Amino acid sequence: MADIHDLFKKFDNEISLSTDKQNNLRKGRDALRSKIKTWFTDHDKQQPTFCWQGSFAMKTTVNPINGNEYDLDDGVYLSGYSDINQDSWPSPSTVHSWIKCAVDGHTQKSPVDKDTCVRVVYEAGYHIDYPIYIMQDDVAHLANKTKGWIVSDPKAFKDWFIKKVQDNDEQLRRVVKYMKAWKEYKEVPLKGIEITILAANNFEIYEGRDEKSLRDTLSKIISTLNENFTCVKPVSPGEDLFDGISETKKNKILNGLTELKEALDKAIEEDDPAIASDYMIDMFGERFPKGESPKKSDETTASFIRTSSPGVLRHDGRSA
To answer: Which end of the chain is more exposed for a tag (fewer CB within 10 A), N or C?
Structure first.
């Protein structure tokens, strides 16, 4: 059987954000935090606090295909409202306008005021999202312009995932990234948070063999979803992210997971790394490295040794 763990590690390096891209995000985050703090000071408002969240904070961000934007989520936590009744809180639209004004002009493109965050877009091909929260009774409330203040705690989710990694292995992070790269390439209707929950809850460690860990994790995910097709968020408000999913979407997800698992089965059983990698390239695209066929054995490639002396004959008349 082919050992394609090294190919997966190369693939992980290919799909992971480069140091330059990570530094760009951190520099942008720090500069924008400074602008937001200055705006709050200038407008006599209590200083907010910040907490980066999402895939970048969990180290599961994947390089997008075809130069699509990569991103960072940096939560803004407003101060001075935790002891005030929600009826007296500023509206989500109001706090969005504060952040939008604070970051306006930082980049050539105007900030985008979305329902759940204010987005700052950089020409270099990345963006930073600023969701806005108020903490009350240890519960985070997100400013959603269409739904009002809703319970949502990305920091708790980040902490939950990091604990999962600590209790298991760094291999879990790589499995999540492999699945994210697969879902983007194959256009499987799964969100990053859904993949993260499914992988973390069904993770099967296989030391030194990422392909087997991924295959075994997928097997467990498929079995779990066939029993009960749910994806429950492990932190407040604990909603089922698959609630109300259509049969068409459900089948696409299950069929996609099964296809990936079966391709891994074939790759793991294949003796030739080159052929094994072809199965993976079909699942992940050309970013997955091509394996090399093993060299032929000495028996099939042995060359004759030339000497200046004739062959010595045995007593039976045959050459030695």
So the answer is: C
